[in-house]
Amino acid sequence: MLKIKNLKLKKDNKEILKGIDLEIKKGEVQALLGPNASGKSTFVQVIAGNPKFKSAEGKIFFNGKEISKLSPEKRVKMGLVLSWQNPPAIKGVKFSNLLKKISKVPSSHLKLSKNTKIKKQSVNLNFLNREINVDFSGGEKKISELLQILSLKPKMVIFDEIDSGLDLKKVEMVAEIIKKDLIDKKVSVLIITHSGEILKFLKPQKVNIMIAGKIVCQGKDYRQVLKTIKKYGYEKCKKHLQAGLCANR
Question: Is 145:71 a contact under the CB 8 Å cutoff?
Fold first, then answer.
């Protein structure tokens, strides 16, 4: 579904991304972890086509087609969607009107799967008729991002710290929505997370560790990867993965 080949980015004569290779299959769930300022958010912004990073080198393939030079809008229309870590507030536009404009599933874009816990936990959706992200709480922003994503019927979603700022109960709720409304429907998912708590609910098939603009190692057992990071820290992660103290490749 997604294939990245030798992705590089320089900005102000500084290497930010240093030759990244990554493959994600259809319906596969992968995670991307790393310390602050390791390049994770920049990496996914490049994948999404942010024009700020149009100087990036390398190739990006989505669903078998090269998209390296395509606009963000064309990438979204192909089914590649990014959930923003800090979505902007937009005054003068009601959130419900945005959903009606972008939705590929009219009349159902406000409805989540019957199996998701969002209904059981009676999440307040009063923000639907408010201006986009204006005075939204952290939880409302996360739910609004999920509603936008579901309305687009994506083939792949990249979540940039969808769990940040949420307590464990809300993390579980968000993970349940992602699982029931995306993963169970064979939508590919790449999730960036700092704490790693959400991985306990989503159970990714592979975890990628990024340090200083490069994916230094990959682990197949997310539980062992999290234990390794917690015990040794990111800087020693590669060493301990290779030493067999964590499930490697």
Answer: no
